[in-house]
Amino acid sequence: MCTNAILGAVADTVAQSITSIRLRALRKPGGIKDSDTIAIQLHEMDSKNPLIETELIPDSKTLPPPFDFERTTRFMAYGFMMAPVQLKWFQFLTRAFPITKTSAFGPSMKRMAMDQLVFAPVGIAVFFTAMSLAEGASRRQITHKLRDMYLPTLKANYMVWPLVQVINFRVMPVQFQLPFVSTIGIAWTAYLSLSNAAEDAIEARSAPSSPNIRLA
């Protein structure tokens, strides 16, 4: 649980560092310049991202502070609480589809299929819902986030995790499966962190502003 929490903090730190690099470049006079190699690469990563219509990194005017410790704490808490659930799931898969000396590839594929068809869709929904609740979002905001982010994130999941899970279930002992997934998942969690922040920024931009009240 502690390992999962630390890896969650590392992943969110990576995500916030990516945002910070681009933020500094955008706020320079004249915006991103040719010398800002990393910022240009991040900008191109956003523009070529086929999974969402909006930018992965939101507009600089709606970004949170350069480093949001509360956001990192939320990721740590989520990783801490999800670790037992993931471990029990891996133990269930190990019992349901045992790997033997004469049968290894088949059970590994069955574990991967079960994980991707059952756990992944539920896990993504739980992630966005839990993060939204931790941020104090309303029911309408949670519904909008799931509507906008669920399917793109699930598609991205299927581009990454089936191969990772085949390796995990085929090679790693059960006690190391969760740390292995969490370590590989640093980049994935960073993606989720950026996606979650981007959707929050979009929601903030689309929210109606409060009317001005003239005092007598």
TrEMBL record:
- Keyword terms of this UniProt record: Membrane, Transmembrane, Transmembrane helix
Topology class, membrane? Multi-pass membrane protein
Q: Name one GO cellular component term.
A: mitochondrion
Q: Where in the cell is it found?
A: Membrane
Q: Which residues form a coiled coil?
A: none
Keyword Transmembrane present in the record's keywords: the answer is: yes
Q: Which InterPro entries match?
A: Mpv17_PMP22 (IPR007248)
Q: Where are the transmembrane segments?
A: 117-137
User: Record's superkingdom?
Assistant: Eukaryota
Keyword Secreted attached = no
- Family designation: Belongs to the peroxisomal membrane protein PXMP2/4 family.
UniProt-recorded name of the protein: Uncharacterized protein
What is the species listed in this Swiss-Prot or TrEMBL entry?
Coleophoma crateriformis
